[in-house]
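Researcher: Structure for this, please.
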Amino acid sequence: MEKIIGWWSGGITSAVACNLGIELYGKENVRIIFIDTMNEDLDTYRFMADCEKWYGIEIEIIKSEKFNSIEDVWIKYKALNNASGAVCSSTLKRNVRETWQKDNEWKHQIFGFDLKESKRALGMTLNHPKVKAIYPLMMYGLNKKDCINIVQDAGLKIPKAYEMGYLNNNCLGEHFGCVQGGIGYWQKIKID
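Model: Predicted structure, token format:
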């Protein structure tokens, strides 16, 4: 059997989706991969180590070979956001994943889209059919709150970002937050 790839983002939903993938296909058939943007909160790496123990397999780390930071991306493209979204996200995540896909063999890829992200899943499936995406959270009817409960029931501490009241665990490195965040997000960043 070719490998099933689980994309682990550092957040709750991808953590549970990867675990479900392991339960469905067996840990010998699953590779869990984290794309490091180099702008992650340090607690993300603690959560990664906890998830590795939970899964019983190592989470592989890949990153951009062209850029060393999100600032490098912003300077190169002279932008934070464009019509396609955050340039750092597309460059440091999507492009890295797409390059990895070309150089590796896999049967399907697991994404942690929950019930509220059905449009995102539909877009991935229709616009990128070669990805052969599967969505375990949607298959099981799980939302983010369910995922938090699953992680806590497994004895894991949730990432610090969720404890602080953020909806995601994205790019809370020591210098920046996520440039895709809205006004409420940035007001909270300023307070914190």
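Researcher: Any notable elements?
Model: Residues 47 and 157 are 7 Å apart (CA to CA). The radius of gyration is 16 Å.
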